[in-house]
Specification:
475 residues; alpha/beta; Aldehyde Dehydrogenase, Chain A, domain 1; Aldehyde Dehydrogenase, Chain A, domain 2; 2 domains; six-stranded mixed sheet; 14 helices; globular; binds NADP nicotinamide-adenine-dinucleotide phosphate
Length: 475
């Protein structure tokens, strides 16, 4: 079994301590990754701070050239990196290829954005003064990423931070550190100066504490659970450390009677089952207007039952394994809880008896509002469906969650579309669209789904300090 070194200050560094990486399709380890403790993280931050001095001085155009080269490296190694995503995360290979392609697109988008960190000249109110607003890179960024999209979510942080002129120390999820190391190889292949991008692994709470307490780390960007997000908020209070937080979600899907029902079924299917249901923007509650409820359920169950489950490396697989045993146990618990409260199990519902952590894609109908799956993220291929009567009721139920990451609606009514756009409490809204995220538009959550936005122009702004310069010219 290969032991992968960490990428620190331009060197591949072996350490004694390691973590094992498991293949969720077999439950067996297939690689090890070196880990470090706080002093090494402090050193990485110091090296990142040293590298920042030159990196920030490059023109945006020059930093963009580096990012374009990283994109080229990633594209060249697309097949191999997609295989790594599937091996450590379990998702079907076609989806890993999609994740690699989106990662390349993020890099190219931010390579362009690097030259657009515009400031502005503000008209003065006092004779002899001029006012400039300029944008400067914040400094060293501590980035913490999750396992569910191990490559693309790391890049939603690294690409804009590097474009802005910041340097990055990335801590990937312990379940999926290999993609981050492959990304470091691409950074090395693109000849990024040493210390500009580094990868650490180890005990998450310790690494985060170093990011929080070390004054050289000027910004923390985190994607993961709301629970850990709250811990970071508490920790950041002491140092007043700026945080960007991409946290949990509990997306509703609203299917109205005027919708194109085929499009609604396909849209609900992709929002629910992509990434084996382990997506922050996965639909967790599907509300269907009563008049089309039965028809929707018939079609949705037919399509769900036809999904192929298996090892993500097998051709034609739609649903891979869950990330680990706890993920599987949580999903089975949610199914049991919903049926005990009166939900009807229309398909799936069982653990598949084979190595790894496989669950049959599941549809539950008439799920009561007090079922656990209607409030908590299931993070699995489990689709709870319930009927609604009116648009007002649908909006009220959709918004009845502490989360607000994404929401979806299927309708052909333009006026309703605008009412939904304006009233749904979510950072991303897909109207007749189950795959809304794209490089050039902001992505992030309302309410307890987070602070700030990634992607789009907002994505780079998250790593820029806004400064007002008042010039006394005496003219
Ligand atoms: P998680 O347990 O919060 O872990 C996310 C990252 O935080 C991992 O790198 C993890 O490291 C680290 N971490 C764990 N404990 C920490 C601590 N005390 N302090 C600082 N960092 C800590 O979440 P997950 O299970 O990986 O990911 C699933 C969650 O992420 C879901 O809630 C999902 O909705 C959310 N998510 C949100 C978005 C979004 O854009 N809003 C996108 C994807 C996922 P270890 O792996 O070493 O424990």
């Amino acid at each position: 079994m290969k032991t992968h070194p960490l990428y620190l200050n331009g060197q591949w560094v072996q350490t004694q301590a390691t973590i094992r990486v498991l293949n969720p399709a077999t439950g067996e380890p297939f690689a090890e990754v070196c880990t470090v403790e706080r002093p090494a993280v402090a050193q990485a931050l110091a090296d990142a701070h040293a590298a920042f001095q030159d990196w920030r001085r490059l023109t945006g155009k020059a930093r963009g050239e580096y990012l374009r080269k990283v994109a080229g490296e990633l594209e060249r190694r697309r097949d191999e990196i997609a295989r790594t995503i599937t091996l450590e995360n379990g998702k079907p290979l076609a989806q890993s290829l999609g994740e690699s392609a989106m990662s390349v697109d993020h890099l190219r988008w931010f390579a362009e954005e690097a030259r657009r960190a515009y400031g502005r000249l503000v008209p003065h109110q006092t004779e002899g003064k001029r006012h400039l607003v300029i944008k400067s890179p914040m400094g060293v960024v501590g980035a913490i990423s999750p396992w569910n999209f191990p490559l693309v979510l790391a890049l939603r942080k690294a690409a804009p931070a590097l474009a802005a002129g910041c340097t990055v120390v990335l801590k990937p999820a312990s379940a999926t550190p290999l993609c981050a190391l492959a990304l470091a190889e691409c950074m090395e292949g693109a000849h990024l100066p040493k210390g500009v991008f580094q990868v650490v692994a180890g005990r998450a709470a310790d690494i985060a504490q170093e990011f929080l307490e070390n004054p050289l780390c000027r910004k923390i960007t985190f994607t993961g659970s709301t629970e850990v997000g709250k811990t970071l908020i508490r920790g950041a209070a002491a140092a007043v450390k700026p945080l960007s937080l991409e946290l949990g979600g509990h997306a509703p899907v609203l299917v109205f009677e005027d919708a194109d029902l085929d499009a609604a079924v396909e849209g609900a299917l992709i929002t629910k089952f992509r990434n084996t249901g382990q997506s922050c923007i996965a639909s967790n509650r599907i509300y269907v207007q009563r008049s089309v409820y039965r028809e929707f359920l018939d079609r949705f169950v037919r399509r769900t039952s036809a999904l192929k489950v298996g090892d993500g490396l097998e051709p034609g697989v739609d649903i891979g394994p869950l990330i680990n045993e706890e993920g599987l146990a949580k999903a089975l618990g949610h199914i049991r809880d919903a049926t005990r409260r009166g939900a009807r199990l229309l398909c799936g519902g069982k653990h598949i008896e084979r190595k790894g952590w496989f669950l049959e894609p599941t549809v539950l109908a008439d799920v009561p509002a007090d079922a656990a799956c209607m409030a908590e993220e299931t993070f699995a291929p489990v689709a709870p469906v319930c009927p609604f009567e009116t648009e007002e009721e649908a909006i009220e139920r959709a918004n009845g969650s502490p989360y607000g990451l994404s929401a979806y609606a299927f309708t052909r009514d333009l006026s309703r579309t605008f009412r939904l756009m304006e009233s749904l409490e979510a950072g991303t809204i897909g109207i007749n669209d189950g795959v809304p995220a794209t490089s050039q538009c902001p992505f992030g959550g309302a309410k307890q789904s987070g602070w700030g936005r990634e992607l789009g122009i907002e994505g780079m702004d998250a790593f820029l300090e806004t400064k007002h310069v008042s010039l006394g010219l005496g003219i």
